[in-house]
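Hey, can you fold this one?
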Amino acid sequence: MTINLRMLSKHLWPAVGLLFGILLLGASNSTNAQEAPPTPQPTATPAATPIPPPPMATPTPTLLQQTPPAIPAGPSYFDYKGVQIGMTAEEARQKLGEPKQKGKKQDFFTFSDTETAQIFYDQNQKVLAISTNYVGKQSGAPTPEAILGTEIQAKPDGSVYKLVRYPQAGYWVSYNRTAGDTPIVSVTMRKLRVTKR
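Sure. Predicted structure:
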């Protein structure tokens, strides 16, 4: 059998070329597939952790911050023979009787050789202050406990003094006793001054 090479090459070369082209195209696609960078996959972004606010500073007490003094309880001494702060002059005279010395600003009363009293009035003729004096050890003077509700530490000479303010009652009370063999006890109550702001 004789093979015609010319006829074989005429039909074979186009088939080889087609096959070669297919191989080249496949190789090219394979190379492109290898060189193409991978498509990045979306990743979940972690949630930002909130930063807590700084703790508030606690103020520390200073030496200047002190507990205010306690307001004393109601007064033990609130009248003298029925006369009170704020009462009218006429009402005071009705309680105490006729004064030994009478005036617009004050009245002076003598009850015995050992007990006297002065009643002071304001511009509206109302009781502003009451001052009583007891002379001698046998005068029957009230004790500090009866007037202020507490004892008073005596000084070395035997004298004592204390003043207590009662803001809620609106007046102050003082107790004073002089030294010596014939002490004088003075008990005073006076309306507190109202300061205007």
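Helices lie at 5-35, 89-96, 144-148. Let me know if you want another pass with a different chain boundary.
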